Amino acid sequence: MRAFRGGLWLLFPMFGIGLGWLFRTSETDLRSFSPAERVSAARKQVPLPDGRLLRWIGVPDPAGGTAFWLGEMEVDRATFRLFDPSHRGVGWAATVSLAEAEAFSEWLGGRVGREVRLPQAAEWRWAARMLWPEAETAWGFGVKNPPAGVAFAKTRPPVRPGPPLGAGFRDLAGGVWEWTAEGLLLGGAWAEQNPDWLRLDRAFRPPEGYAGADTGFRLWMEALPGE
Predict the structure, then answer these.
(1) How many CA atoms lie within 13 A of 52 on its CB side?
(2) What is the pLDDT along the chain (227 residues), one digit of tens a residue?
């Protein structure tokens, strides 16, 4: 009995792990996509009214086509101001509320003639993992050692996007938290101190109307036949 009491401390971390599993953020992975080798992702550029180009990366489907396009990086402040000239902020990314991100998506869709919206959480994670379906981070594995240039544990917002990770996306880890269609924020941000927030299975739902210097968004765009 004494030996058992001496080992009671082992129960506490086990209890914590159990709670973490019970209350984890739900995630729907598209597990049918399991490439045996590295994916060669398609690229696309879409011009805006002022001649600015938005760069997109094609996320493949299991049949070898393009399932959808996802922005190479978050929408920056200069691009967002084409839609709302009054927008102000710090750093390079457009830091906006969920409603503002959705309004911009609808506006841009009308300009490019196809559906544009925020990605669903599963789509965002699928794009981040499309080189390694079991990856725990946007760069693959090793949560405690993010690559150089990932904006994390900083005292101010970044003034440029981070390095390309995985299939070439920038800032899927660090930079700013990114809005998804469900109103969840994914990806971690420059101000976070715990590297666990860079994990792809982490997410949180902020208060309604939240728009801080640590939140931004990237866009999902439909793929047309033959792309």
Answers:
(1) 15
(2) 444 344 433 333 333 333 333 333 434 333 334 444 555 689 999 998 788 899 999 998 877 789 999 999 999 999 999 999 999 888 999 999 999 999 999 999 999 999 999 999 999 999 999 878 888 999 888 888 888 889 999 999 999 999 998 889 999 999 999 999 999 999 999 999 999 999 999 999 999 999 989 999 999 999 998 88
Reading the block at residue 200, the tokens are: 């792809």
Rounded to the nearest 5°, which phi and psi values hold at 204?
A: -150, 160
3-state secondary structure (DSSP) of residue 54: strand
pTM of the model: 0.82
Percentage helix, strand, coil, to 5, in the chain? 25, 20, 60
Dihedral pair phi/psi, residue 76, rounded to 5°:
-90, 170
**What distance in Å separates the CA atoms of residue 200 and residue 129, rounded to the nearest whole number?**
9
Strands, sheet with 116-117, edge to edge from the N-terminal-most edge strand: 43-47, 53-60, 66-71, 220-222, 116-117
Six-digit token pair at 56? 């997109």
Q: Supply the DSSP symbol for 25.
A: P
Spatial CB neighbours of 199, under 8 Å, sequence gap ≥ 6: 136, 137, 143
